[in-house]
Amino acid sequence: MRLLHTSDWHLGRSFHRVGLLDAQAAYLDHLVATVRAHEVDAVLVAGDVYDRAVPPLSAVELFDRALHRLAAEKVPTVMISGNHDSARRLGVGAGLIERAGIHLRTDPANCATPVVLSDAHGEVAFYGLPYLEPALVRDLLGASRARHEQVLAAAMDQVRADLATRPAGTRSVVLAHAFVAGGEPSDSERDITVGGVAAVPAGVFAGVDYVALGHLHGAQTVTERVRYSGSPLAYSFSEATHRKTMWLIDLGPAGEIAAERLDCPVPRPLARLRGTLAELLDDPALARHEGSWVEATLTDPVRPDDPMARLCARFPHTVSLVFAPERAPESEHLSYAQRLKGRDDRQIAEDFVAHVRGGSGPDGPERAVLRGAFDDVRVDQDVREVAR
After folding, report:
1. Does the entry feature the keyword Transmembrane, yes or no (predicted)?
2. What is the pTM of this model?
3. DSSP label at 100?
């Protein structure tokens, strides 16, 4: 049976205030085309369909179109809710939608109720484990503690118990949305440590043929049978080195796994540039990034004038600007009081400017502003003294 494993669509999310709806629509076009081109037997979506619990209408409309197109292909789709989704909202109408071959698994009570599909070699049971918030599902699943490892272990115990009642040779696939130990996170995932340590061991999923994971945004292989598809688009600059893909999984007659990564369309590459403003503007080697989304880290000791506009003149898709001035080392032997000894208020203020700029003090006009500010304060103090 041929499976297409994807996750973490995050419909409705933007990238540094740049809307991604068109890129997400292009990805879903690519998904449907891939289903056709590779003769996929089932699509697996391992959570975080939306970016937030109450998604914008445009994201809901995009999801609705995707469901209709997948149903029209007559290829079953198994989908779970992630920690960004509202399980209740995503699961509305699941019973009716299931008649069209779209199987939404958003209720933790149904972890051990599989979607059963068949091929020439027999049945395959697909178990959908939506994101399990430990404090909310501990009692429902009979877990020993309200921790991620314990609630997932309890859910998997139910899966294995159900699988044991099925005909010999039944193959099994689990969809789960979790942070599994050995996975490499990025800055894009929402922290799920509330309710205990987030990471769970891959051994929790022992006894099934394939585990389609969601949550981490980089495609990765935890074990041969436990994999993250990653997100189809980059959602932070920490994903600049990611190759965005989906897993094409061939599940053999005895549960053998053959896996291939299929590339997703890239709306615009990411580039993280670092240097002084002059270096970034003048370096001919950076020409290849002029069409990229750019995060620029400026190391100028003094903040340049109008840096964003000047960067955008060369890199029009600069969306993030970070200042990290390279500073001369300060003496470690002088206390703060010793540094201030014998200096008046104006000199202390000028020294502070030099400190935050890495050694470059205020220029003439800036000194005039500081001098004027201190003069105004002194005049105000004098007026108050006279008033007393």
Report:
1. no
2. 0.85
3. T
